[in-house]
């Protein structure tokens, strides 16, 4: 008998209920748009040395939108995943989510459109790129309501375990964006070469078209007519959506408030520091695609199994995803050690930004391994709807660690430097998985007392 036979038997046992095909489709649905984003960053880098820094100013709006996108959508993910066999319930949840998401995104759009000057002044944009930043942010913010609708519909499709359908929708979106980049931004002979404005215009057009396609595609998948949509009741789903999404929204508010504080400090250091960090994040989040796909897929499947009271399968799915993520993160570390500088140079020719990108990698690679582990642990919170623990963790890290640091920098007590900012990122990422593990153990111990849990455990052990 092989020494690894017990491990092989255990792996076969825990991976039996793992949705390999569904996770595979989600992975492709994330890889394809990220490949496009890399090409988009490449074209932006060819515009000018400052172009990437200008487009990175949108990060401040993106953070605000992320707060909206991590409230209602996560409520939709959990509730639809738990009720994915109940078509009427799914339609009701989806209608409520669309109404709420559209309302909040319109508020953000109005704020940016009517207060662009004040917004740019607040985020500390370097003087040499202020005017271009204003026009870029104004144009791009127009797309927010259209993007919100498309995003909600994509989340709903994924939550129904329709990975192939989600992949088709994403592929159509990427095709539209590639064509628009070639026509508006690239330096090819067929391009209008509109520069930064072309990037924003293409973004708006693509989101409008994507929303139209997403609506039509969802109506087809759910076999919906407009009469059914109008007649479907939705108000009773508002409270459950906020009960789950409210905590994730608060978490996002606290977490991104800390993040914005660090970005403000980083922005004050200069264009190269800010752009270099942004460049590193493009590379890192590209390599993290498999981790993000596993995290999203695990959250959905946890919700599916939780709704069906398949608790043993639920835990086994989390275990398999954890093993896969650890392997992926170690692979990313090896790739970064040998190729990070080359990857950064491919995306942007600015040598100073490349230097800061490499420094960011060495500071954050070990903490990002912790981030990968925490991503899978948090899937238990999302899938079961116990999202308050995510908020508790965020409060500890941001209010307890990051906000005091930003305050000390603003007051001049601690000098602002690239090294000090990276140090605090490192601390935050390392603390996160430890707190998530404590929360997951608490959630699991609570769910063991639910009706049907002990029965499922006994069945799973036979």
From TrEMBL:
Cell location: Cell membrane
MF GO annotations: antiporter activity; xenobiotic transmembrane transporter activity
InterPro entries: MATE_fam, MATE_MdtK, MdtK-like
Pfam families: MatE (PF01554)
Any single Gene Ontology cellular-component annotation: plasma membrane
Gene Ontology biological process terms, A to Z: monoatomic ion transport
Entry keyword annotation includes Methyltransferase: no
Superkingdom of origin organism: Archaea
Keyword Transport: yes
Bilayer-crossing regions: 17-36, 60-81, 93-116, 136-157, 166-186, 198-219, 253-270, 282-306, 318-340, 360-377, 389-414, 420-440
The entry's keywords: Antiport, Cell membrane, Ion transport, Membrane, Transmembrane, Transmembrane helix, Transport
Name this protein carries in UniProt: Multidrug-efflux transporter
Species for this entry: Methanocalculus chunghsingensis
